[in-house]
Amino acid sequence: MFMDTKKITELSKLIRYFILKSTTKAGSGHPTSSMSAAELMAVLFFDGFYTYDLSNPHNPKNHRLLFSKGHASPLFYSLYAAAGAVSEDELMTLRQADSNIEGHPTTRFKYTEAPTGSLGQGLSIGLGMALAASNAAGADAPRVYVLMGDGEFAEGNIYEALELAGYYKAHNLLGILDVNRLGQSDPTMVEWDIDTYRRRVEPFGWTTFVLEDGHDVNAIRSAYQSAEKVKDKPQMIIAKTKKGKGVSFLEDKLGWHGKVLDAEQLKIALDELGEIDKDLRGEIIKP
Prior knowledge:
Elements: H1 5-26, H2 31-35, H3 38-46, E1 64-67, H4 73-82, H5 88-91, H6 122-137, E2 144-149, H7 156-167, E3 173-179, H8 194-201, E4 207-211, H9 217-228, E5 235-240, H10 263-273
Parallel strand pairs: 1-2, 2-3, 3-5, 4-5
Helix pairs in contact: 1-3, 1-4, 1-10, 3-9, 6-7
């Protein structure tokens, strides 16, 4: 049973609120890179696709999630806050020296599967996890999800992982490519040409699902549903998104990578997000 689409949209807004508040409090971080994938991850978490026992991170039936774009850690932590697994107070310790809520995910945070941040490595790690799970459980193996950015698709080890995943028919591996067009200082090479990404991925033996609007909750839900039906190939969702989505002066604007809002800018941004139900929470279903 899927969550009401309006509630997913409201949770995505809450997640953006958490992202903006925590990075401004920290004085550093990557809010805009996190905001682009809010709906992609909210649907994954709260529509029942990602199943995970929050009380037992070592449950072998848990699905696995890797943020290959580790700089989007504010999104990563905000998802667990929206699930009620992390308090807002703890979330506001982002990047503090004694905090488990670090600038890039590490295993100090108990729901992190592997440390990430060096771009291009997450798909290889996810492939290893998917193959291990498949060897142990066969067709019933838990799924492994890897969130990637379009900037890291310039990394050669992405293509090594694509090739090996196709060769081994890693049916329980799903890549989620967040094509937000903007890199660290310039647009990416192919910008929003999502068909080029499709043509790069498919020849390695992957099934792809292309989303013209990576913020459309219903389209995202449909893509995850379709991916679950593929039993003989790895899958990749390729989604056109907007960096800084939800705030007009951030959305698809250069110059905001790794830059946080000051107090005045934060107030303007939160006013633009509109009314937020800070008590709203989603549920991560147990396996």
